[in-house]
Amino acid sequence: MGTKRHFRVWRGDDTGGSLEDFQVEVNEGEVVLDVIHRLQATQTPDLAVRWNCKAGKCGSCSMEINGKPRLGCMTRMSTFNETETVTVTPLRTFPVIRDLVTNVNFNYQKARELPAFAPPAGVAPGEYRMQQVDVERSQEFRKCIECFLCQNVCHVIRDHEENKHAFSGPRFFIRAAELDMHPLDARDDRKELAQAEQGLGYCNITKCCTEVCPEHIKITDNAIIPMKERVVDRRYDPVTWLGRKIFRRDQLDEQPVSASPKPAAAAADSGSNWHQEGPVPQEAPVGADGKLVVAELTLDRAAAGSPFGDDQVFPLPPEQLRYQHPSPPTGDGH
Amino acid sequence: MTTTPARLRSASGAGPRAAISEKTLRTDRWWLQPLLVFLGLGAFVVYGLVRAIMNKYYWASAEHYLAPFYSPCLTKSCVEGSSHFLGQPIPQLPSWLSPAMIILVLPGGFRLTCYYYRKAYYRSFWLSPPACAVPDGHKTYSGETRFPLIFQNIHRYFFYAAILVGSVLTYDAVLAWHGKDGGVGMGLGTLILAVNAVLIWAYTLGCHSCRNIIGGRLKHFSKHPVRYRAWGLVSKLNAKHQQFAWASLFSVIIADAYVMAVSAEWITDFRFFN
Ligand code: SF4
Ligand code: SF4
Ligand code: FES
Ligand code: FES
User: Of the ligands numbered here, which is closest to the C-alpha atom of B212?
Assistant: First the structure.
């Protein structure tokens, strides 16, 4: 048998809101998301919360629990005292849509602004070869589930909305690091991009991103600081510069295994429109009273609405696509 | 028909945030750690200042102990015997300037620009932010993008200097095996100086700049097996950088205070032999 616990949940939307109090049953072995679901089932059927996997793998259920950014499905109720009030609020850094659901588009925008992997010239897909030790390093960053807790906690944008324009955030620093450390990536301007376009310099390495990452990625130690050091290599350090000149190490360190001096990717890349607006999120169809219709019978349509929005045409017009497949290699030997 | 309401059209991130009046809803003692760091680093700075101004009690001549805050002693004003293989290239100093002030610039700058200490003092002294998900204490923020904080990027020069400082401290630790009546001897001070040198090396070699220079900057570990191995070792130290930062901070104070006490004859050195 469970116990009754005191919950405070933020309810509201972009016009305002407040913390509401609930007494709710909690059973052994439950997590915060279970309790939110019980609230939905028993007291507040219209409480909005985003979730999918309940296994800490989809990154949907990011919320703030007792002021700490966490995954609702990975926060055990047993970590709280029986008498403790549990306060659940939406992520602070992003615009709220309703209740615990925020609009995390900022992150998708920043993702689009980061140039994708640039294939090496003269190596056909399927011919890529990498050594295990080279793969291992970036493997850590691939664990990211895009929960955006790190983006949410980072004080650079959390406390300074005006920095959002210039700052990409820790999630995209690990992506930049991953690509910059990638042995086959043909771009050699990623350090400069990280500094100039992503705002790497705004980070003051206070490590909150690392503290909240549910995948325990060492964001600061293994991605941000190495990227800062790589920027220093390029821009400020005469000793490594001299070393490179004397031992002619520049080719060795900077260029991918199979690279020709000119990255083929630059050309392919210029065709993509990284700064294009994404499709705008749409609301579910509502009745005349502005609320969701109760039953399908009263809906003006045969079935549920399209998750992409009913005014979306398929297939998407190609000029609206952001991705452009690199043209087949034209390098030597083919 | 599904519609796109106006408020979602501003979706690219401009809408208002959830209206939560509390600045932070954290219920744990988030202020404890910044407070401890503040006190710890504050105490170190105060001790360092007092010691640098003191300008005496840094050379225990009978035992050959040199206080780390005054090592290497490079000026003509150093007390006799305290300068060693580096000599005294710097002329007599005005009386308000001590030899410690000259040399402390290097280890001081190294620690000031260290990635770990930056985290520590940005949080506890500058409150930017004091703790995670606690609002930072400033209206505007530009991080390390401009003057003066962009100069944090010179950390690696201090790292190069720290290698020299580490070598000198190692030399001092070897020198401390000097017996009271010549030959080899060992006292408690010898042990303290040796432990201090080891911790300083563990801290210095675990530096993020070192990790980058040794191998972190490579794209292909597989092409540089030796550097890859070295990078692996440095990474091990690097993972404990915070712990070594504090351990070496304490050890340097203990070593310095011990030599000061011996040299001022407040205590006598405990000798294991000779
Ligand atoms: S370490 Fe940098 S990126 Fe991570 S939360 Fe702190 S300021 Fe943001
Ligand atoms: S890096 Fe960690 S905290 Fe950030 S989005 Fe990925 S999994 Fe979440
Ligand atoms: S529901 Fe998927 S991470 Fe929590
Ligand atoms: S000494 Fe701490 S990072 Fe260099």
Answer: 4
